[in-house]
Structure formats: C-alpha cells, structure tokens
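SAMPLE LOG
Freezer: B-3
Tube label: C17
Construct: single chain, 457 aa
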Amino acid sequence: MITVVIPALNEEKTIRNVIQQAKRNDLVDEIIVVDDLSLDNTIAEAKKENVRVITSTHIGKGDSMREGMLMAKNEILVFLEGDTPYHGDDIIKKLTEPLIRDEADFVKSYYERQTGRVTEILAKPLLEFFFPHLLQFRQPSSGMIAGKKSFFQKVEFDNDYGVDIGLLIDMHNVRARIMEVCIGEVENDMQPLHVLGRMAKQVANAIFKRVNIFDGGRRQDDDPTQLMREQVEFALKEMVRQPKKMIVFDMDNILLQGSFIRAAADKFGFRRELNDIMSQDKSNYIKTQKIARLLEGRTFAELINVVESIPLIGDAVQVIRELQVRGYVCGIISDSYHAIANHVKNLLGLDFTLGNELEFQKSVATGEVKIPSQLLKDKFSQCDHDHCKSNMFQYILHRFGISLADSVAVGDGENDVCMVKMAGTGISFNSTTPAVDEVADYVFKDQSLKPVLEVVR
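STRUCTURE (predicted):
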C-alpha cells in the first residue's frame, strides 16, 4: 500500500483538490497533510477530506517532508505539492509503478513544459560541474517524488528550496536506484523575481554543502513568541464573528482522557524520573526544563503517536462547535508542549493553542524547551509564581480585546489554579486537586464536557 504526504503552507484553495487526486488511487490507504504553520484555512480545508493532519515542528518544507515520512506506516511514499492543481492521468500510479515493480528505490518526476529558470540557469550548470552523472534528470528540483521509506530514512531533508535537489544527490550517494517519469502537464504559478533569488541561493547551498565547499548555513530557531503571535493574529483575522467571549481549556485530563507526559513516560520508560521531578522541584519553570530533557532523542512522530494513543473526551468536538456558534473563541493554554497541544487543536477544531516550545532538530527532540515570555511573571501578574498560566491568560484576553468578565477557564491541576481563579467563570473539571475546586465557580465530575454548555451563556 501507499502513503501520500502533502506538505502544505497556506494552500486553502488547492489542498482539497490535491487530496482528492490522491484518493483516486486504490493503493493509497494513508494520506498525511503536514501543515507548515499556515496562516489561512489550510488545516480546516484538509480536515474536510477526513485525512490525517499534523503541524510541523518548524517552518520549512524539508522538516514537513521528514515528519510526514516519519509518521508514514507504509514503505512506499509519495510526496505531492499542496499548491499544484493536478489534472489528467493518475500521477501517483506513474510515480509508484517503478517502486511496486522493484525497479527503483526513488522516483523523480518531470513535466511536459519548459523547466524552471532556477533549474536551467543555476541548478543544471552546478550539477554538470559537481555531479555530471545526475544531468540525465530533466527537472532535478521537481517536488513531486516517490520512494521507499527505508531510503528516505538515510538522507537529509534540507529545510528550504534546496530540499528536492538535495534529496536527488543524497539518494545517489546512498546507492538508491533512481528513475524519472513524466507526469504530464502541471499548472504552477510563476514565481516573482525576489522569490527566485532566494530559491537560487538555497538550491546552490544544497549542492555546495554536499561537496563540502561550505556549510549551507544553520537555520535560526523559530521564535516561539513570534509563532504564538502569528497564530493569535490568524485566529483574530479568521473570526467570522467578532469574538466577545473566550474559553480556555487545559489539555491533559480535560480534552484528553489522560496526561501526555505521563503517557510518554510509560511508553519510553521514564516514569520514575518524572515522579522524582514532580515531587522534588517546587518551581514550575525548573520542572518544565527538567521534564523536557526526558524527551531528548525522541522523534516528532513518536511524540505524536503518543498523544494520538490517548482518547479524546467523547463529545469535545460537538461542545467546541457549539461554543464557537455562541461566539466564543476557543483555545488551549497548556504547560505541555505547543507541538502536542497544536495537534489536539487540529483534531478538535479549536481556534488557538499556547504552550511551551519543545525544541526539535531534524524532527528529533533536543531536550531543550523555550518558555514563551508571556507565561513568565511581570508587573501585571496577579500571583507570585515565576511561571504561570494566568499570565498567558491575561495576555490572550488583551490580544483578543475580551474583558475578564467574558472569559471562561477550564482546568484540573495545580498549575490551573490561578487561571481558573482569575477567569470570569472558572470551571474545575475532574480535578484531583482540592485547590482547583475551591477557587472554581463550578465543579464537574463527569466524562462529558456538555455540563460546560449549561453554565456559560
């Protein structure tokens, strides 16, 4: 069987067309859309097709491709571009037939049109000089490819426009059998000159790096605060209604029927170390740093599989839809990790999520974590904690222009106490922490979120 991976960035107009094309092939039994932190409705449009949607750990096509590859269950993978309308024959069949017949390990595509300007002016001359044996490929930078997962696991995914030509060179270096097939005519918009300039530099870097002329340069780590601001701004922009009310949920044991980090501890065998940290360290900030180190070396795919193994509370989707109809902007503030909470957001259709930024390098957790500054104590803080969800709660209310009286917070743990107390309406949900029950306006012990609808207007 075949897995189709579709990296996507702001492709709301074309993503469903691409998914539908993939579904036409009877051998495709898994489609994974890897969203690259889009600022449009790409995720919502993709979910209409009932496919798996994940959000990449970094901005960049290469990381999205790698993470889709890691998530894939099949040996035969196809990568399609989310911005390209496909017409005519079955492109997936053309790309995968050499793999199915075991005639190739990696398949490139080319189109029946003039090749791109960067390819002709830059890529091919550099290949002729450094890798002349690869000149046989008409469009070395084509992004529509297929191959065997066992070979993709051996190569590097550059996180920019150089990814496709880099994969071609790497596949040759690991002795993959490479073929190129014609996939007919494909409609693509012409890139403006300033984009072509950046593309040319990145393609050149990918080639130079592979002949050790110089390192193509390390990517600056994404700024978690900036990513958070962008997501909030998008949620603001996309509200058909003008949001006047907000409800924030903790993730663990409320939207999920369990705790992500405890499930990870059971899966990866660090339950004792986790318990020691939770019992010995009083500072939330220090706890966050130490717990992140327990995840060092775990891949993004492994962590997503853990969170997907935890059942969602059964009626969460319906309750969230009803809250949105009532005019609530709905989100998660979690002391877990943004990559995990964001996946839950995608599953449930929430408007935003805010959490700590677990650092990944090449889709592998480094054990480092970046804590958004909005969680830290400042002059506006209403508690003495050095690191508190209530600080983030105040920030997000301000960004949405919503009054405290029109806010709702749903929590269950010690780290939720200040936020639940601060909110206009505080709800304790299945809490095992007496302090949460004490400060809450409502206390629910239930396996359904529907009681929340009964107490919010």
